[in-house]
Structures are given as structure tokens and as C-alpha cells.
Amino acid sequence: FILSLLRLGADIEKITAVELIKERFDKLKRKIPYATLENKNYLDVKLDMKFDIITILAVFSSILDENIQKNILRKAYDELDDNGILIIYDYDENISKVKSSYYSSVSFKELIKELKINKTCYSQYSRVYINAKIAKLLCKLNCSALIPFLQLLKIFNDRYSFIVISKPKNE
To answer: What is the pLDDT, as a whole number, of residue 55?
Structure first.
């Protein structure tokens, strides 16, 4: 995701990344050596700054303790600058109930409740997989209204969803 942001013009020196797993941290360090990188638990990182964008990618499904999930969510939201956005990408329990002793699908609805934010401040998107020829046809027809319908048909979805939360100015 960070590499995508860089391709879109993000300033590498303004990127801060926190990764708990050492192997992933080392890989990140090789790919973006000039970014600020922390190999720690996110809840232990002290950052005296606000961010325009914060991403939490496949984290909540790996943390089975709901209190820790809530603490991470609240910390991330509090670290957003006014008009900043929080992007969460994870297993969505509404699409696929996944549970093991190591990971579990996430209730985005419950996460949102924790923030006590206005419903207009967030949007949820499920990834939809369709045949390339059908996708090209839909683009030509400008049928973006079909996407919510396609999301309802479980055969087109994978197990993940995105949720985008915006922090209103002066909240």
C-alpha cells in the first residue's frame, strides 16, 4: 500500500509505518529506507504528530482481544488530522465468517460503534471480482450502480472489505 502511495506522489519522508513482525519490518525497511519506521506494537509507539491518512491493513483479524482492537482503533482515530481519513482493510464477518485460534473475521459495524461517529463519516466497500470482459463492459456502460448489487452476490466477493472513516474538521 505504501508503494502505491509513493506512485501517487506521497513524500517518502512524511511516511511513518509501524510493523510488529520483524520479517515484515525488515522487508519494509529495504523498500522504503527513508520513511520513519517503527518495529513495535502500535499501542506502544508515541507519535507527536497528526496524520492525513492512516491505514490498518489486516490487523484486527489477527487480534482476538476486542479491547485491544478498540484501543488500536481509538488511537488511530485520535492521531488523524482534521479531515484525515482512516482506511481499514480486513476480513469482513458480513461476507465470510472466519474464525480460528489465530484469527477471526471483523465486525466493521462494531468497530464503527466504538468511535461514536456520525454515519456520514464512513463508507464501506467490499472487493468485487468479476470477469475482465464483464468489467470492461460495465465500464463502457458506466454501470457503477451495479457494484452494490454485485456485492450482494457472495460469489463475486472475497473475504475482505475496506472501510474508510473520515474525521470531521474540529471534532
So the answer is: 87
String of DSSP letters for 9-45:
T--GGG-EEE--SHHHHHHHHHH-TTSEEE-S-GGG-
Residues 6+ apart with CB under 8 A from 116: none
Q: What's the pTM value of the predicted model, to 2 decimals?
A: 0.72
Classify residue 92 by its DSSP letter. B
Residue 167: name the closest of 92, 77, 59 by CA.
77
CA distance 66 to 104: 11
Helix, strand, or coil (residue 7): helix
Cell of 145: 450502480
**Kindly report the CA angle at 150 between 149 and 151, in degrees rounded to 5?**
90
Task: Please determine, for residue 150, whether its predicted confidence score (pLDDT) is greater than 80.
Answer: no
What's the CA angle centered on 112, arms 1 and 49, to 5 degrees?
55
How remote is the C-alpha of 61 from its chain's centroid?
A: 12
